[in-house]
Amino acid sequence: SPEQFNVTSFGATSVAAVTLQALAGMWINAFIVSVICTAWVKKTTLNSNEKILLLLGSSRFWYLCISWVYYFLLIIYPNYLYVQPTFQLLTVTQRFFSCSEVSVSACLCVFYCTKIANFRNGFFIYLKVKIDRMVPWLLLGSLLFSLVIGILLYESIDKPQCNNSTGQENLWKVRIKIDEQFFPIYLITGFGYVTLFMAVILSALLLLFSLWRHKHNMQTNSMKDLSMDAHIKAMKSILSFFVMYSINFISLIVTMIYSTGGKSAMMFLIYVFQYTFPGIHSLIVIFSNPRLKNTLLRILLCVKCKVCMR
């Protein structure tokens, strides 16, 4: 029989580890959403960067939430997962928010590159002028891409296999039959990931070249120092996402290879990566944004003061 998690030992440990990572990531992204929503209420409008961060934080929060529920059922109550409509709903919503947070992150990288990099190319200047108007359409395109992937995934799931038969002897066969039907979706999603990945790589290269040229021509005045700081902050965010995106893409390939093989340890490592990097990248985004950074530092200072008073 295929190797499966031992719920009382490794399974319980993996659930605890994933739970801690998911809760940390959910808290971080909930913080981003709450700060931006508060600013939205105060000034009744959002700039392009805040729009992207709001959708990114929301997507990541719900992705981590749904993914944790899926993983918890997979390890603790697998016979409740592969029934209709639980499996369809969790799988489709998980994929929707996963594609959404990845595509919105790519939009954030393109936005940073367009706003901060300096080139004399006419097309690039046109993008710099029009990028604020393009952001809502880019975000809408990201949501439509995610919705299409979710619909295709829902249609590809073999609904008759997701019945109410939860016999332990048939559970693994049901899972394999379902996983085998995901390969077309993996290919379509992979193509979308590669396209977005190329956009991230191009943004990083353009920003790096702009940083190098700016440093080469830099003179000692405050404006150029501010421009250098903006370049460096944007590069940190883009490079962190580059690492996260690379691991997500590798995870997709490994999932295609091991989803029907019962490689529990390998799948656990994939889940660890998928839960860790959205939180790490969101932390980098927080410390790259003055409003988010200052709000977080004030909260931490208040918590420290209350602890010291006790």
From TrEMBL:
The keyword ATP-binding does not apply. The chain crosses the membrane at residues 20-41, 61-83, 95-114, 135-154, 185-209, 238-259, 265-288. One of its GO terms (molecular function) is bitter taste receptor activity. Gene3D superfamilies: Rhodopsin 7-helix transmembrane proteins. It is found in: Membrane. It comes from the Eukaryota. Keywords: G-protein coupled receptor, Membrane, Receptor, Sensory transduction, Taste, Transducer, Transmembrane, Transmembrane helix. Signal peptide: none annotated. It is a multi-pass membrane protein. GO terms for cellular component: membrane. Belongs to the G-protein coupled receptor T2R family. PANTHER family: TASTE RECEPTOR TYPE 2, TASTE RECEPTOR TYPE 2 MEMBER 40. This is Taste receptor type 2. It comes from Pachyramphus minor.
